[in-house]
Amino acid sequence: MPTTFFLRDLASTLGGAGQKAALARRGRAAVTTTTTTTAAGTNITITATAGGQALSWFSEKLTNAVTISGSITPNIRVRESANTVNAGIALLIERTDSAGTVLGTISARAVIGTEAPTAEAARTGARTPTSTACSAGDRIKFTLSVINVGTMGAGTFNTYHDGPAAGATGDSYITFTETFVTDEIIEVGTNERIGAGYYG
Hints:
two-stranded antiparallel ribbon; 14 strands; 0% helix
């Protein structure tokens, strides 16, 4: 059964600066990141705000071992400030240990689809990973970066994540062929009570 990790605006349980959670459930309200592009730039890790904190996303720890070898499909919502920015979104996927230390590359950094549009839209495309055996306790790390498509120009680049609805603003995720089981704790809404078989 395929597994999808949604890019959330929640802090990862790792607790480091700029480390966000990649979870099995969509978010509650779309969040926009802004990255400043530079003339002739080539690879700029996305930032929460222009010139701000660089971001990366981590799954919770894997409960069971799994070998990643099937197709991976990213879907990332993006826009560039002008056609002259000449930029797209790139994705790097890595295997880490429980503390977030990188152990190996699952899918090397590469552009997803084509140049970003000037209005928010999804960029998607299949990836063939390096066959990677993950152990219980490992995490999956996702790093997005702005990459040149042609010659990059100065401007800004936005990504959108943590959205609540499929195919709408903020619906950014990565789907794996394999089934993952993680230590993720399911969020409980404020209007829910947990008791002896009772959900109110």
